[in-house]
Amino acid sequence: MISIQITKSTKPANKPDETALGFGQIFTDHWFRCDYQEGKGWHDARVEPYGELRLNPAAAVLHYAQEVFDGLKGFRGVDGKIRLFRPDMHVRRLNRSAERLCMPQLDPELALASIEKLVDIDRDWVPHNIGTAVYIRPTMVATEAFLGVRPAKSYTYFVILSPVGAYYSTGMAPVRLRVEERDVRAVEGGLGGAKAGANYAATLRAGERAKHDGFAQVLYLDGIHRRYLEEVGTMNIMVRIGDRIVTPPLGGTILAGVTRDSVLYLMRSWGMDVEERQISIDEVVEAHHQGALKEVWGTGTAAVISPVGELVYKDSALTIHNNATGELTQRLYDAIVRIQYGQAEAPAGWIVEV
Questions:
Q1: What is the pLDDT of residues 99-123, one digit of tens each?
Q2: Which end of the chain is more exposed for a tag (fewer CB within 10 A), N or C?
């Protein structure tokens, strides 16, 4: 039995307008915190009023980037029940990220309890409309004040909640991507498979350049050959060539997306031809020239499914599905959303009710 101390806020905030939520800008009344000390382990699990995280200026997270996080969502279904989507996979991924950065493992039972308890306490913040959710951000940071280069001996794990709308202001509209030829997101043996802040900082420059030039994001190529597809910004990428769906394999350079895994499961259960293999940008271009490139989409927790309407590579624009959302892309989005909001039966273990 996990013991969590509860201190309720005496000054609850006003709930936001659910039609104008945006993404990641509003936070709920409470947060979860738990501390770690070498030799003592994790201790003092608590939910308390949302506040500031106080750090010593010499805290290891500020100097050596020992920080990992994850992101999942809770949904208020059409029946009023609140559902978490595959939280166990997110907890396992958080622990894999922590292991890569030499950070302590969380007891999965504690991690799941921290999420469920916090969502339950702030359940009135979970918005009601289809397309909205409460975004859940579990995070671990190194807090030891020490300037030597080694793993820290103390950490804080915390969870915060944010009621959100669509990640992209355009919603499900197809996005325009530039194939990035200068920067790389990750290399084999690096942090590409970990959900670490340092991983995302490395993508900011290319993303900002692309947005300045009118693109929604960039499609990264591999860091060695600069040829094989990796990720789209913060999303996994999938392409449909003819009746075959291809997505890059997990091998340490891309994140093991929970939505990615869910989409692959659904397509295989529908009897579709799905491959997890390296796919080069040259193969994509050739498929487009032959008229075989039917659909391209990204998958991720924040946007769920994001159709790609145009790829720009070496100053050549590849228009995909007439810059409209493809049939399979729409089917996948609808299937995932219906499961999340309790409108369709979920595969075993996918949903946890709060």
A1: 999 999 999 999 999 999 999 999 9
A2: N
